[in-house]
Specification:
The chain is an all-alpha fold. Helix content is 31%, strand content 0%.
């Protein structure tokens, strides 16, 4: 077993290795905070779909 070296006195490479070892895994979970889209905001994609004739529903009158 090696000699104890305080974290502050370690080289940057060794500090990086220690940090990587301590870091936990998210196991496939994305830690980014998410929120729903604002329903009142203008959505260009939605506006284009509304104008698209290929999506138009044929009337059955």
């Amino acid at each position: 077993m090696g000699k104890f070296i305080p974290y502050e006195k370690m080289s940057k490479k060794q500090q990086k290795a220690v940090d990587a070892k301590r870091r936990a895994s998210w196991n496939g979970l994305n830690p980014v905070t998410r929120k729903p889209a604002n329903p009142k905001a203008y959505n260009r994609k939605k506006a284009q779909q509304w104008n698209d004739p290929s999506v138009a529903v044929p009337s059955s009158f």
